Amino acid sequence: MTTFDVRKISRKTIAEATSRDIGVWHSIACEVAPLSGNLQLGQPALINPGIYFRNLRFPRGYGGPGTPGRI
Description:
Elements: H1 11-19, E1 25-26, E2 29-31, E3 39-41, E4 45-46, H2 50-54, E5 67-69
């Protein structure tokens, strides 16, 4: 998990995760108003789908768009 206004994930991070067979999912999160400590997640995007297919696994995503909750 990365934080702090990440709009794009570095190619080095993706390469390292891929070399370790780790899926990289990217989603933008915003705190729910009024300030409650809960986050609302945007639609997740799988950045390196090849790791799933070469290992005969299938990506399943997490949560869903607009899923509120604490991380």
